[in-house]
Every structure is written in C-alpha cells, then in structure tokens.
Amino acid sequence: MLRSEKQSLQGMEKRLYDRFRKSSDFTCRTVVIANEEFRACYLESLVNLRTTLSTINQNTVQPDNDWTRQDFHALEDEDDSVIRLSYELLRGNLILFNKEDSVTVIEPEQPDISRSIAIPNSENPIQSAFDAFTEDIDRNIGLLRKKMISDQLVIETRFIGGRSVKKLAVIYLEGTARPKVIESIRKSLDENSDKELTTARDLTRMLGHPKFAITPTYISSELPTETVQNLMNGKVVILVDQLSFAFAFPAIVTDLWTTTMDANFPQIFQVFLRIIRVGATLLAVTLPGLYVVLNSVNPELLRIQLAITVAKSREGVPYPSIIEMLLVLLLLEMIIEATIRLPKNIGPTITMIGGILLGQAIVQAKLVSNLLIIILVASAIANFAHTSYMNAIGIRIYKYVVMIASSFFGILGLEGAMIWITLYFASLTTCSVPYLSLSLKGQASDE
Amino acid sequence: MNKIQTVTLLFLLQLASVFAVLPERMIAASSGGHWIAVTILFAVELLLLWLYLKALSLFPGKTVVEICIGAWGKWGTRLAVIPLLVFLMLDLILLAYYQSIEIKTVLLQQTPIAATSVLFVFLCLYGAWKGLAVIIRASIGWFFLFMPFVLFSVLISIKNFKFHYMFPLWSGSMSFLFHPDFYVGTVIFAGFLFLGMTSSETRIGFGKAAGAVGFSFVFALFSVYIPLLLFGQETAIHLQYPLLLASDTIDMEWVVFDWLPSFYVVSSSALGILKVSVLLWMFVSLLHRLFMPKANSRWILSFACVILYLSCQLIPNIGVLNSYLYLNSYFCLYATIVFPILVFLAAQRRRKKVSA
C-alpha cells in the first residue's frame, strides 16, 4: 500500500519533470511547512519561494488553522491532471505534494516582474488623470474598477489561445452598450477561442474585422480615464494580458476627430477643437491631390495671378508634379518613421536634417517647387492634428489614392476619390455597427 | 439605420435631376411665368408620392414588387415592370452620358470621354455593388461634402440679378403643357421610386418625404430663375447649360479660384453619380427579382455597367442625346406616373382580397 503511494507521487513528479525537461527554471524540492514535509514544484522565475513559505508558516502558527488538511485533494494519476498542473505552474502557481498522495495549488508571492503604474508614454493627456495601463491585466481591471464605481460595469474574463494561453477581459457597461455589439463580440471570441492572441491584429482578426480596412476598426488607449469614457459612450472594451492598451470596439467615424479628453473642456472649446480636426482631416486628404490638380491638370481653376505664381515656383523643376509630390512625400514619410523609434537624444538631429533638407536645400537645388513645400508642411501638420496616431496612418495612406486619381482625372479624380471613400466608409460595418454612425449609445441616430 | 438618411438621399436624388434637366427644359417649355410649370410639376409629384407611399404603408415590410406580385401574379408584375426597366436603362445611359459630356466640356477638355466615363461608371458600379443600404448611409456624407458647393454655386450669382427679367409673373396660357420639353422634366419624379424598394426600417412617411421634395422645390425654382434673372428668357433659351454659364458670369475677388463653374460641375456630377448608382441598383434588383432569379445579381450588375459604358461611347453628340430624351419621356411618364398608380391600385386590390 505504502509502496504504491510512493510510486504514484514520484510518477506525477516525474511526469512534470518530463514535461518541463527543457525549462531550466523548473524546480522540485522538499520544503517544510508546519513541521510537515512537502514536495514543492514551481517555476523559479515566477515564484518567490522564500517569502511564500514564510507567509504560509506565519499563517499556520495561528490557532485553529487547518489549511493543510482542507486544501489538499487526492491526486488522480491521469493525463489531464498533468496538463492541469503544468498549466498552473505556467501561470506562476506553486504546487505542493504531501506524503498522503494529495496535491494542492497555492498562489505564491511572485517576484516583482511587472511594471508599476506610471504616466502614459504614448499619449499626452491634458487636464486629466495621469495614470496609465500597465501590462498586468488584473491591475488594469482594478484601475477601471477604481475609476468607475458602478455595479453595471460588467467584466467577463476568458482565456484564449492554442499554444500559449492568454487572459483577456471583455468589459462593458450594461444598459449602455448595445446588446448586438456585445453579442457579436462574444460570438466571434467563442468561435476563435483556440487561435493565438499576441498582438492587436490577432484580436481584430479574431473579431472578424475586415483585413484591409484603411481606417482602424478599434480605438486603443493607454489611459483608464479615456477607457472609462469609451465605456460610457457605449463601446465594448477588451483588455488583453501583457498589452498595456485597452481596445475599444467598434470605432465609428466620429472617432477620427473626437477624443474623450475633450469632455474636460468647456463645450465651446470642444466644438472649436472638433471643427479644427474635421477640417484637418479634409485638408490632409485633399491638399496633396489639390496641388497636383492645380499644377498639372486643371490650372485654369486658379485666378490667373495665382496660376502664374504657381507656375513660376515650379520653373526649372524637370518632372511632372505628381512625381515631385511623390518624391517629397516619400522623404517626409521616412522622416516621420525615422523619428518615431529613435532614442530621444538623437531625434532632434533627424528633425534638423530633415528640416534643412526639405525646407531649403531641395528647393534651392530646383528639385521641387517652393509651393510644394508649403503644401507638404500643411498636409503633414493637418495629418497629425488627429486624435490618435492610428487614425493618422489611414489618412496618410489614403492621400496617395487621392493624389493618383487627381493626376489622372484632375478635379474629377479628386471628387471621385472623395465619393469612393464616403461609399467605402458607408459600407464598413464592424461588430454589427456601421462605421458611419454618430453614436453608439442605445439606438441613437446613425449618421 | 435612420430615416434622416433616407430623406437625405431622396433630397439629393431630387436635386440631381433638378440640376441635370430642369432649367433648360423649363426655360424651353415656357415663355413666361416659369414658376407655374415648376409648381405643377412638383404638385403632381407630391400627389404621386402620396399614392406610392400610401400603397407601401398598407403593407409594411414589403417592397413594391412583392405588393404587385401579390395582386397580379408574377406575369402581370413583369408586364408592368418592363417599361419601367426600359426607362431606367435609358435614363441611366442618358444621365451617364450627360454627366460625362458636362465634365469633358468644363473640367477635362483634353481627356477623351472614354476615360472620364470609366471613372464615372466605376464609381456607380461600386455604389450599386455595395447596395442601397450603403448608398443611403453614404448620402449624409455626400450631403456634407457637396452641399456647400451646391449652395455656393447657386448663391454666388445673386449679385448680378436683374429682377425685372422675372416678369411676366403670370403668362396666362398653359401652353407649356403641350410642349415636349415639359414632359422631359418629369424625370425628376424618378427620384422617389427607390422608396418602394428599401427595407422596412428605412422607410419614411409621407410628411418627411414631402419635406424633402418641398425643399428641393426651392432649389428647382432657384435653378430655373438664376439663369433667367441673369440672361433673360430670350438669351437663356439658347444656352445649353444655363446654370453653368450663370456661375461663369461671376467674378469674385476673394475667391482664389477663377473658373467658378467647376464648382457647379463638381457638385452636379457628384449628385449624378449618386443618382446613377441608385437607379442602377434598382434596375439590377428588379431584373434579378423578376426575370433572372437564378443569376448572380453582381454579374447582372457588372454586365449592366459594361452596357452602360459602351452605350455612353456610342452616343455621337449632345443632339442625339436630346432626341433620346424625348423618346425616354414616354417611358418616364409611365414609370413615374402610371407605375405609382398601378402600385396604389395593386395595394388596394390586395387589401380587399385579404379582407374578403
């Protein structure tokens, strides 16, 4: 009898050893808790054994504490219990075997390997709360709970993934978010629960969003305050473990020019800011195209004095305006990309070089016209007047379509490109919500 | 889905036809008191609209085709729809050609019409491909993008008005009723036909529809009277694009643009694309529903677009276009006057059948 018990215990330990043969941080050792011997199995990198043991020992010293008897349950020597135990190990838990062939899983003290809550790095909140999400999903949920004290805040956690398992939380405000949206998100998460989830794109693919959308179908934010506002606006927020962003679904057209931070300003300021952003959107898309139109296809649209000035500024430039525009835009895009990832102390160098290069030298060398630089700068500034970097990229891409259409068909091409984008936006539907909606609250009016 | 979108689409469709045909036809048809002709046109339209929407409201959730099939069976409906289909196809071709010509004359003199109509037909194909629901949703975007241009091009000419051209206010004779150009103007009614083919949640009541029509009536008056007040009847009657030329007479110092008619063409061609997409969608879905239920509707659509494009190339000049317009006005009268009445009668008959 005793012999077979011993066998089963060693068998389970051996099986775990086999499973983690290649992980050097897997450890099994004998520990003493309350004068009893146990075998403890854990991953060294995720468990702080010393503090865990001292905490447990402290607890057992207290009178009428019988934890060792209660929590242990019999070991079933089956395959799925090995899988279950190894999964617990991977999540950072401690497994204890006692001499009576029983096992328990303990949530231990973990070494401090997650970041503490800090100020946001990729967003600049003005007059708002300054805490930002971190990588730890429980901490993020806690941040939201703290910001929004309401029993209508629904938090559904689930685990998703095949090879690696990821925790994610679907969060919404009951009564505010549309049931249809919640249902469609739930359904597509259920259907794809075995797919890998590591990036934001995995998530959108899981939710069945179009693969080649030129506008982001979600809003990501690292600010809990903004996320709370998104929740109150009827969006469904998905938090993914180890991603320090909250994804709010679905994005609608107004997200191009609104940020929930606006609500901290007086109404009239908000209206003003939004009008500016809408104008910036239109300018960012149309300005480069308009330059091509007015320069090469329909110069007669301009007043004659202006047309002559435009033509003069291009004097000596050897190629058509569309090539000119594409060349300089390419340069600009490269500068933008270069400055994003550079360390902060090298960034200014690029800005300076780029400024000199674009602003002065290239014009003096008669490679491009003066006017082009003005247009370029205006459209670049307009481009970044958007509420988020994500939105700006879609517009950055779409302006090329506008430009090429304009170079073929002049003002008609510009118009056609705008019509096409309107139709495209109208046809875009994510999470059962048309993109051209003005609000997500209840059954409020669509645009 | 919201009803405002449908109302907007109705308004924009009305506006599209108003800009495309109304001024030259009304000026040609009547020698004085043009507002009478315009008013009669719109009054008839309101009446038809009421009949049409009344019939639809009796059977919520059903399209006109279903109502007709219920009353007369499949073959009766087919028979009733054939002239409508002819009208739609002819109107599509004429409208597409008209817009392409206008674009060519004003915006792209160098570009051959084959190239401009590629873009035009492609955009319409894309719109019709995505379906009516998408067009309805997009119409608000269209409204905000292009209405400023419409308003701008309509209003800039006010400072050159000579108001005495407005007289005689009352011509007394109703001679325009016997003028074929007046009946070409009935094309504007075609705008409301799509209302019978929307899904039930986007369906609008008569009040809202009448609002849209009434609003477009104001623009119709503008479109007729702007060239009249600028040039006078005697000159305006000879102009091919009276409204276009009207915006060319203006010189405004503060606008950086010189060639102001291009605003008018930009806005009216955008409206034209909208109208062609809607009519194309109607044409294809009628054909698919009644005559080729087995064929893939996207194939029918692509095929229709190819025909549309080729026929645009085959029309030799604007004079031929005019003769086709007269021919089309017969079908147009059927499609916009007889067809709504037929639908109304079908609805009445079907209701009697159900209640009996």
Give a brief description.
Chain A has helices spanning 2-19, 49-61, 67-71, 79-90, 137-147, 179-191, 200-206, 224-232, 267-297, 304-313, 321-341, 347-364, 370-383, 389-427, and strands at residues 26-33, 36-43, 73-74, 94-97, 102-106, 153-160, 166-173, 219-221, 236-240, 246-249, 429-430, 433-434.
Structural notes for this entry:
In chain A, helix 5 (137-147) crosses helix 8. In chain A, 35% of the residues are buried. Chain A is elongated and about 100 Å long. Helices cover 49% and strands 13% of the residues of chain A. Chain A is of the alpha+beta class. In chain A, the strands form 3 sheets. In chain A, strands 1-2-4-5-3 form a 5-stranded antiparallel β-sheet, with helices on both faces. A 5-stranded antiparallel β-sheet of chain A has the order 6-7-9-10-8, with helices on both faces. A two-stranded antiparallel sheet of chain A has the order 11-12. By secondary structure, chain B is mainly alpha-helical. Chain B has one domain (3-355): Amino acid/polyamine transporter I, CATH 1.20.1740. Helix content of chain B is 75%, strand content 0%. Chain B is globular and about 65 Å long. Chain A: Keywords: Membrane, Transmembrane, Transmembrane helix. Chain A: Belongs to the GerABKA family.
What is the typical, i.e. mean, pLDDT of chain B? 82
Number of strands of chain A: 12
- Rg over C-alpha atoms of chain A, rounded to the nearest angstrom: 30 Å
Number of helices of chain A: 14
Written as H for each helix and E for each strand, in order along the chain, the element string of chain A is HEEHHEHEEHEEHHEHEEHHHHHHEE
Domains of chain A (count): 3
Low-confidence stretches of chain A: 1-6, 442-447
β-strand percent of chain A reads: 5-15%
The end-to-end distance of chain B, rounded to whole angstroms, is 36 Å
Largest sheet features of chain A:
5 strands, antiparallel
Low-confidence residue ranges of chain B: none
Mean pLDDT of chain A: 81
Using CB atoms under 8 Å apart, which protein chain pair has the greatest interface?
A-B, 31 and 34 residues
According to CATH, what is the topology of chain B?
A: Amino acid/polyamine transporter I
**Helix and strand composition category of chain B:** mainly alpha
